[in-house]
Design brief:
alpha+beta; Nuclear Transport Factor 2, Chain: A; single chain; 5 strands
């Protein structure tokens, strides 16, 4: 068991997803009850090669588990039903590299169809 931020860590799982990493940590309260923290850590690389991580954390308590699970399932099912499982944007693929972004933007702009709009007609 690890100690972090003064709270005892009971169980931990890590999900690596490209530049993002998700941490699922079960911790113990001072009263001995359990709660869940979900942390998203996203790596940002600067032009000079240095980097920093931006983290967002939510705390989920047992009394909210059932409704949270139901709402999460409903929202994810909606997305899958509407858009399927295929990732549409290459920028969100796990193996996408920053160098590819310039090519991605350049190629998509070069092949994009533009509609000429005359604002006098509006």
């Amino acid at each position: 068991m690890k100690e972090r931020e003064g709270q005892e860590e009971i169980f931990s799982q890590i999900l690596r997803a490209g530049r993002r990493t998700y941490f699922f940590d079960v911790r113990s309260t001072k009263a001995g009850d359990y709660y869940l923290t979900i942390t998203e850590s996203k790596k940002f690389t600067h032009d000079d090669g240095s980097f920093h991580y931006q983290k967002h954390k939510i705390y989920l308590y047992k009394e909210d588990f059932v409704e949270f699970h139901e709402q999460l399932k409903e929202a994810t099912d909606f997305i899958i039903n509407e858009k399927g499982l295929e990732v549409i944007s290459e920028r969100h693929q796990k193996d996408f590299k920053k160098e590819d972004e310039a090519d991605y933007n350049e190629n998509n702009l070069a092949t994009a169809d533009f509609t000429e709009v005359n604002f006098d007609d509006i």
